[in-house]
Description:
By secondary structure, the chain is an alpha+beta fold. It is built from 5 helices and 11 strands. The protein folds into 2 domains: 8-132, Roll (SH3 type barrels); 144-174, no CATH class. The strands form 3 sheets. A 6-stranded antiparallel sheet has the order 6-5-4-3-7-8, with no helix packed on it.
Amino acid sequence: MSFSSNRYKQRKRLYNASWSSAIKLMSVPLSKDLKARLKIKSIPVRANDTVKIVSGGFKGRSGKVARTDVKRRLVYVEGITGKAQKGKTKLVGIHVSNLLLTRLDLSDKYRKLILQRKGVSPELLEKEPEIGVVEAPAAGEPETESVKSETTSPGETVSQTEAVGGKPTEEKKEAEGGS
Length: 179
């Protein structure tokens, strides 16, 4: 059996892939420390894993996987939201090729079996329910998403900061110097 390099046929195979093949296409590369510990390069992403976005509009942000869409190969990450049509906020889908897996959720016994098949020692899997390093913010400081500044009146600036998992906070600053 020969394989085609025709783009049309490749796209057709991608869209008509079986469910088991589609799940394999949901594989995400592991972070450097996970690669060193588990000695594997990638694994299909699941809910409750922690991922870091490495490319795209949300580059550099990380969060817990809320859900996955196997058919469209999208991952929905908590804290990565956009505006819906009626003004509500909803999760934004991130393609699996733009992600890096930083923490594994091992609460599912089938996932442990997958890792054992790939050669990970059962002792390592029994020690921890989750494997990986959590990147914590500095003591007492929330991890920020974005900062918006605007001038309301001469000499006064309002900056709005959205914290991850929190509500926006506003700060009013008087301009220094007189005039």
